[in-house]
Amino acid sequence: MNSLHTASAVSVRRTSARRILAASAAGNLLEWFDFAIYGFFAVTIGELYFPSHSPTGSLMAALAVFGVAFVVRPAGGFVLGRFADRAGRKPALALSVLLMGGSTTLIAFVPTYGVIGVLAPIAIVLLRCLQGFSAGGEYASAATYLIEYAPRARRGLWSSVISATAALGVLLAGLTALAISAWLPDDQASAWGWRLPFLLAAPLSILGLYMRLKLEDTPVYRELEQRQQVAKDPVRRLGRHGMARIALVFACTAMAGLGFYYLAVYVVTHLTTVVGWGKTDALLLTVAGLVLYSLLCPLAGMVGDRIGRRRTVVAGGMGLGVIAVPCFLLIGTGDVGLSLVGLTLFAAFEALVNVMLGVLLVELFPPHTRVSGGAIGFNLAQAVIGGPGPLIAAALATGTGIAFAPAFYIAGVALIASVTLLRYLPETLGADLSERGEPADGPTATTQAAAG
Q1: Which of 63, 333, 388, 397 has minimal Cβ neighbours within 10 Å of its Cβ?
Q2: Residue 21: which of 166, 147, 137, 141 has the closest Cα?
Q3: Can you tell me the distance from the alpha carbon of 32 to that of 55, in angstroms, rounded to the nearest whole number?
Q4: Assigned domain for 14 exists
Q5: Across 52-56, 231-235, 446-450, which has the greatest mean pLDDT?
């Protein structure tokens, strides 16, 4: 009887784990599809909403708006991260996908500059800001939700779901853009076809919201509630110890975020504007690179579970710093095979860094300030380093006339961040996620409510 009960319990746990992984993966994929689709239509959006005397000027304006969304991300991380620590991981994830889906859908309805003049780019900027606000709470909340459920020995592997589905969301956006390019003539794609994937965000986001609302909150958060230890002001309770951990997350995100946006957003622009490829061929190669990256993410997670977070993330960062220039030289040849080799090398080291980032966001902080601390460090780095990355890369290639000049930026960031993490990052492999960490410096939200 006991053996039957044990087998039943194991089966329930496995079913629950599959459901949690599937819902987390689907929600994160849909969120990143919404956020990334803008990047694949940056050239078209630049022409329609940011008219200029030169195509390069329009493209630079469109990429600048891509970066503007990252400026707003710290505010989103602050508000939604605080919300996740106070109200729970599940409500924060539901709110994030709702905001992202709504703002993405509305972009499809914005008239062009030729119709409403300056109001058109203003509307695009405001909606991109709302996307950025939503994305500011997504990554840290999603990583925390998944890792707080993960088996201790497989947190790296589970974290790979967040990294891989982010890439798959961008991949889906890329395939959608590719389908529109193949299905419609250029004039129709520019006139109305580009709006279709933004409209697709509405049903996809409703699906993501439904899946997230069906989940329970994490055992770690429910334990905080039961013990009346939910923080009233998690940001204030981070303290000096928390600020040091935020700096470590900033360093890791600087190279992981920049590398990801090079791979997911800038490569297609580089291939079309610098190397001289057609849009369809550039999208196909970018899609291939993202598929390879997604397949490498679970391997990176297993490496981190085997040898530790610190060794893995430092090895990945150092690798990015060393191979960035050779990778761009390979991509710049214009040869499909050599370009794919360059993307594969880049994706391999980026996977090591990115997957470990998801685990470190969680393991570095105590549960009552976890999402706030991770979201602040993550989004500050994305605003300062990652978000402007495609714009800086394009400016380097255009301003210097050197095709591989964008590699200097990612190489410098990766090497500086790696040295910093080598010096200061503690090993967190096997950390107890229920430990409260530093002493609290104020009443919790739950105890204050009870006292009232």
Answers
A1: 333
A2: 147
A3: 27
A4: no
A5: 231-235
Is residue 100 domain-resident? Answer: yes
Residue 289 neighbours by CB distance under 10 Å: 26
Q: What CATH number does the domain containing 284 carry?
A: 1.20.1250.20
CA angle, residues 25, 28, 34, in degrees to nearest 5:
140
Q: How many residues does the chain have?
A: 452
**Collapsed DSSP state (helix, strand, coil) of residue 231:** strand
Other CB atoms within a 10 A radius of the CB of residue 243 amount to 12
Strand partners, 444: 231
Separation CA 308–CA 90 (nearest Å): 28
Model's pTM, two decimal places? 0.87
Between helix 309-332 and helix 406-424 the angle, nearest 10°, is 170
> Model confidence over 126-151: pLDDT tens digits?
998 998 899 888 889 999 999 999 99
How many domains are contained in the chain?
A: 1
pLDDT of 233-292, one tens digit each? 898 888 878 999 999 999 999 999 999 989 988 898 899 889 989 877 888 898 899 999
